[in-house]
Amino acid sequence: MSLASPLKAIKTAIFGQAKLMQILCYAALIFGAMGLSSTVNAADEALPKEYIPLVQGLIDAAKANDPEAIAKRVAYPLKREYPIPAIQNTQEMIARFDQVFDPNLLEQIAHSKIEADWQTMGWRGIMLGSGVVWLDFDGKIIAINYQTPVEAKLKAELIAKQQTGLHASVREFVSPELTWETAKFTIRVDNMGNNQYRYAAWAKGKSLSEKPDLVLNKGKLVLDGSGGNHSFQFRSGPYQYHCYVTVLGTSDSPPGELVVYKNDQEILKQAVIKAD
């Protein structure tokens, strides 16, 4: 039960927030290398005029601290940092508003300058700052890369609950990254600290309280731009296991994909059909 102690839960929540900021910093470095961090080029404009009213509407709603107005400007489901469940609709967004939007985030949006702080990022959408808020080209919020203290506490509680239901061999970790179901497998990826990740897989239908059929250690996180898309990659002899996570995608994009390679040749590809 020590793993689920309040002290460790708090540490886990703090690590999760730090990891989120690390991802944003890495993304900023990537775009900095491309000349996009502090300057705007023809591909990524400051903000075309047709999008200014959409952004201004969100700024006005934040200034008014209007949960209903902001909730109507969200594209659902709105993903939250795992294992916090996604927000499914306007009513749920209003009920959970204080989890997602605290005074600090509302102030960042309300005091943002359209000309200086918002820009389009190719097909990905419209970005505030270094990616704290993302809009689609209809002005809907599609991602919020920010975690309030309320969400951090909730995440810690959910992690502690998860740990009690796992097989003892995979019960210890710093923070969970994902739990997926594909056509044939249930998959977990956990952060083990020191930038290393663990992959555990069960045949579909097995309980996670049973011993995993496969465990791979020393995986790595690979970032894909500033939109949040990323992958967890693991190696076992000639085999490579890649879990591709979709944060920003199209309306019909699955939450992710499991792709297995042998000697760099793809031998298995399964879309995620359920993501907790």
Layout: helices, strands, pairs:
Blueprint lengths: L5 H28 L18 H12 L3 H5 L18 H6 L1 H4 L2 H8 L3 H4 E3 L5 E3 L4 E3 L5 E4 L4 H16 L10 E7 L3 E9 L2 E8 L10 E10 L6 E7 L2 E7 L10 E7 L2 E7 L2 E2 L1
Antiparallel strand pairs: 1-2, 2-3, 3-4, 5-6, 5-13, 6-7, 7-8, 8-9, 9-10, 10-11, 11-12
Helix pairs in contact: 1-8, 2-6
Characterize the structure shown.
By secondary structure, the chain is of the alpha+beta class. Helix content is 30%, strand content 28%. The chain has a 9-stranded antiparallel β-sheet, covered by helices on one side. Strand 5 and strand 6 (185-193) form a beta hairpin. Helix 2 (52-63) crosses helix 6 (103-110). The longest helix is centred in the first third of the chain and has 28 residues, at 6-33. It is globular. The two termini are 23 Å apart. The model is unreliable at 1-43 (pLDDT under 50).
Question: Keywords, please?
Answer:
276 residues; alpha+beta; 9-stranded antiparallel β-sheet; 4-stranded antiparallel β-sheet; 8 helices; globular
